[in-house]
Design a protein that fits this description.
CATH class of the largest domain: Alpha Beta
Oligomer: single chain
Low-confidence stretches: none
Distance between the termini: 69 Å
Length: about 500
């Protein structure tokens, strides 16, 4: 197979390169569009595809195979004999196409690999900030981007969120910074890049069904540190993140910077009482600290929890590594708002708080929610993704007023509650009609809740068994809560 080592720039000769694009979501389409613009010979294989995308591919002269013609290892892909495959990161490495590529030494990239090579399309070449973790990626990415923009830079959040990264690369005006959220799926495939700063926010059990083991999942996450030039940011409250950094090959001179919610030591960003402090990016850090913001500033964002505080200190460390002044960090925190479904307060009535944290799709994220409240009626369940929920139940059983269990994997949740929280009242929601799940779950939670309690939707599970996605799950929860409370 021909080497692709010469393809390192937008201005390289991509003409005629045969590329198979696997998947046609927003990133797959942006990859096909970009490759066509470069003059490559492109064919798309996607089991599911929007008609709008297919129509545009026809206009661009890009071939495509969909439905059954894209399943398994398509004969048309073998006949096409691609020199490169650009895949959706959700495709498992054990899939027939990826296995076939490995056997024939056909390189497999994702859109981020392609974007790194093409980042010099405009004269304004962006620095990259890379962010991963089991929990908190999106908030930290958005916060970092907001801080950079508040400092007068032109920055965009992309990767696993926001605008497809290849669309950012092709933006005519260019950017000073791209803040790139990366999932473990993306990192599994990602080749060598060299960001200005990177962060692993935390690491815990998730996506074990995809990666095969926690070791492989951790190995993928650790790749975010590789090649970092200025600051590799780790969580002082999660020693596993420091261990991943210790194994990484960073550029000589790159600094290890800690973040957390405790009083910061030298080369850390953290909190001294109600002040967010920098002891990493100031000259006299051995003897002093720089105030960046206060807890009052941070409380403008949403419900003030240790998890939010950690995200803020991580974003601040990354922004400071990029040269952002303290005043810009404070300005950003005073205007930033969390996305919906992230520890979002829906209502308070009769001294009972109703919180939507539907984005808590794994036990680590759910632990951050449960740790934030004293007495909880917990709405839990869905698709567990191969993760053992018993340790989570054992850790927070003492906080549970009751539990309402939903979802396809609810037997596993019920067994965990019986084993690790035997005295906690449990209500199972079993219905044939998914449209009734949340209405009944909320009514059950109301029967368990007492004054001073928090009813918390933090499912520790994916949502696609009974809902369109986590946002749909959270929206249905909020609607059911409002309907219940308005009827009282």
């Amino acid at each position: 197979m021909a080497s692709l080592t010469h393809l390192t720039s937008w201005h390289s000769d991509w003409q005629g390169l045969r590329v198979a694009v696997i998947g046609l979501g927003v990133t797959g389409f942006s990859a096909a569009d970009t490759l066509a613009e470069l003059g490559c010979e492109v064919v798309v294989f996607a089991e599911k595809a929007e008609d709008e995308y297919l129509d545009i591919l026809d206009v661009l002269g890009v071939g495509h195979f969909t439905g059954d013609a894209a399943k398994g290892l398509p004969d048309d892909l073998v006949a096409f004999a691609p020199e490169l495959i650009v895949t959706s990161p959700g495709v498992k490495p054990t899939s027939p196409i990826i296995t076939w590529a490995a056997e024939r030494d056909v390189e497999v990239w994702i859109d981020i690999d392609l974007a790194w090579r093409l980042r010099d399309k405009t004269s304004r070449v962006a620095e990259w900030v890379m962010i991963t973790g089991t929990n908190g990626k999106t908030t930290t990415t958005q916060l970092t981007c907001e801080m950079l923009n508040a400092a007068g830079f032109r920055a965009a959040a992309c990767g696993n969120i926001g605008t497809p990264i290849l669309d950012c690369i092709r933006e005519p005006e260019g950017f000073d910074f791209l803040v790139v959220e990366v999932s473990s799926f993306q990192l599994h495939y990602l080749g060598q890049i060299s960001p200005i700063a990177s962060a692993v926010l935390n690491i815990d059990q998730d996506h074990i069904d995809w990666h095969g083991s926690f070791e492989e999942y951790s190995k993928a996450k650790a790749k975010v540190f590789e090649g970092t030039r200025v600051a590799a940011v780790y969580n002082v409250g999660d020693p596993k993140t420091m261990h991943l950094l210790e194994q990484a090959e960073v550029v000589e001179g790159c600094r290890a910077i800690g973040f957390g919610v405790s009083v910061p030591r030298v080369s850390e960003v953290g909190y001294a009482e109600d002040i967010l402090c920098d002891r990493a990016f100031i000259e006299n850090r051995a003897d002093s600290a720089l105030e960046l913001a206060t807890l009052e500033d941070i409380s403008n964002i949403g419900v003030l929890t240790p998890h939010l505080m950690a995200n803020v200190s991580a974003a601040s460390a990354l922004a400071r590594a990029c040269g952002v002044a303290a005043t810009a960090i404070k300005d950003a925190l005073q205007t930033f708002k969390l996305d919906k479904h992230r520890i979002e307060l829906i209502a308070i009535k009769d001294d009972i708080s109703w919180i939507d944290d539907s984005k808590a799709t794994n036990p680590h994220a759910t632990a951050a929610s449960l740790a934030s409240f004293d007495h909880v009626v917990w709405l839990v369940g869905g698709l567990l993704k191969g993760v053992d929920i018993e340790p989570l139940v054992a850790s927070y059983a003492h906080k549970l007023r009751g539990a309402v269990v939903i979802g396809a994997d609810r037997t596993l949740v019920l067994d965990a509650l019986a084993a690790k929280a035997p005295g906690v009242p449990v209500i199972e929601i079993s219905v044939d009609d998914n449209s009734l799940v949340m209405t009944r779950a909320v009514a059950a939670a109301a029967n368990l809740a007492q004054a001073g309690d928090t009813v918390l939707l933090a499912p520790a599970s994916a949502s696609m068994d009974q809902f369109k996605d986590y946002a749909d799950r959270g929206t249905q929860f909020a609607s059911a809560v409002h309907e219940l409370l308005e009827g009282k």
